[in-house]
Amino acid sequence: MSANLFDKVWELHRVGTLPSGRDQLFVGLHLVHEVTSPQAFAMLAERGLGVAFPGRTFATCDHIVPTDDQGRPFKDPQAEAMMSALEANAALSGLEFFGLDSGRQGIVHVIGPELGLTQPGMTIACGDSHTSTHGAFGAIAFGVGTSQVRDLLATQTLAMDRPKVRKISVEGSLGKGVGAKDLILYILSRLGVEGGIGFAYEYAGSAVRSLGMEARMTLCNMSIEGGARAGYVSPDEKTFEYLLGRPYAPAGADWDRALAFWRSVASDENSSFDDRVELEAEAVEPMVTWGINPGQGIPVSQSMPRVAELPPERREGARAAYAHMGFAEGESIAGKKIDVAFIGSCTNGRISDLREAAAVVVGRKVAPGVRALVVPGSMAVAAQAKDEGLDAVFLEAGFEFRRAGCSMCLAMNPDRLEGTQVCASSSNRNFIGRQGSSLGRTLLMSPAMVAAAAVSGEVVDIRRL
Amino acid sequence: MARDVERRAKLVGRGLPLREDDVDTDRIIPARFMKGVSFEGLGDHVFRDARFDEVGRPKDHPFNESRFSGASILIVNRNFGCGSSREHAPQALARAGIAALVGESFAEIFAGNCVSLGLPAVTISAVAVRELQDLVEADPSLLVELDLEAKEVRAGGRRFALSMPESHRRALVSGLWDSTSELLPGLGAARELAETLPYINWSRPSP
Hints:
The structure holds two protein chains of two kinds. Chain A is of the alpha/beta class. Chain A has helices spanning 5-13, 38-46, 77-93, 108-114, 146-155, 180-191, 206-209, 213-221, 237-243, 253-265, 312-325, 345-348, 351-361, 379-387, 390-397, 447-456; strands at 14-17, 23-26, 29-32, 57-60, 96-98, 123-126, 140-143, 157-160, 164-171, 199-204, 230-232, 275-280, 287-289, 297-299, 340-343, 371-374, 400-401, 422-425, 441-444.
């Protein structure tokens, strides 16, 4: 019997069956940040419980940290209170904490892989829906709520029903100017934002194999936008090569043991799946969202859909989207003016994303009237970008080059849209109000496309720049 | 340690129809209200930007309608609670008086968070949702009854078959929905299992 990675890893971590019928699942790596954990630590204390496996829980701060002046106390007293709570909770429970003075702080889904904490064959959880990112390494990674953060702190386990597994195979080669962000936006436009409910996604096929690790992270990151609780890529030589020498990756004799284990959890050839979807890489173009959920994306060369031509179940959502966006049916998405360009987030805030954007920006200037920001995903990404001179490329062009954090992806820090601004964004969600203004409008696209929009002042096809 | 043993097998209340697909958790509770270290006060901000414009004037929204005030059963459409995993969303709904949700489908993290709070989120067919929303719209005083044992939603003489993950139903009906209480007895077994995991004792870097 051939097994897929998901089933192997789940079985390996299954402690037993609970009275409710759910499985008790051991979690190998628990990541904690300042927004969804303080209530969990408080509930733990209220029950007189401690952290069961402090060595398997790591903390950092990302959502609320200012990306300019990070002097303490923070100017925003609420942000300062959250930061202080996390510092105190981590210290009290003996958790390793990657703070602003560690050189290792960053978005939780950027630093996990970068430090080598994220590894194949692990179960990983975090109080953040984009935990699916870590699936890029062949880990089973779930976003959870705060009560489950409490469960994890108290027991290092979760109560979960095993989802079904859908294999999404993408064969062929992605075209020039087309990357992982375009691929996931394409998948979402095809399968819908609810199509993944009840499933974990395995991404496979030659187009996925050919993606580097950071691109695979982008792909897995947005699994949740399709309704899938988790998404993963079975590990291969690229995965192992990425991990070699990372600070928390196994070393010495353990490296060889690790390789054997990691190879053993990969999906077997002819594994069985609950569902399969096959897609052709050549069909994917640079994508842009025009609406208010990440499934409302179209190739940049196309016009926005006419409501009457959409499947009946998508019409009402399309009407609501047009009402908010102020766009008209049948209009071209290319040429839409933008006010803000945001490059960053757990989706696209890694060094390869910054390189991709910088390659577009070099020798060009941000269009008049456009505010353009680069927010590296971590301190390490920022340092690497500076080593390569990318910060100078962005600054020279008129971008702001800020410090690491979640920033304008969800606007919990001072970085936000104002009024009805339109933002070309490399983040993951175009929900109403997501970027901090209830009237703001978000167009999701790849970092290269954001860079192209920034220098053009409007949405453009990267292939024609 | 037994706590929160409170059966949630049957619930009766007035209904609150919210007609929209893909309502995300940013909409339910905008991120700026998550700046805090507790869930207190979130009920005041539920659907804030959908209910009020940028200068605070009320907009058309079922949560603003006096005829639905005091309603405790939220009747929603497809993929409710999608997006962010923030438990602040069901916390805000619960603190605004919502005791249960009936809908066509729910995003999974949201549904799981609801169970963690003892808040049933049950699904009925798309057609049944619309009928129930119409019934409640026509008569906001109508009582909607959730019966997790009989697996049905009843209102105005109509019965709709409900479904939800069996584990969620069992947890709510038995009153054992507090997951930490359910997991703690397995802590010893979890420690034993951890020792069998290949990666558990791999060398860690020196600090």
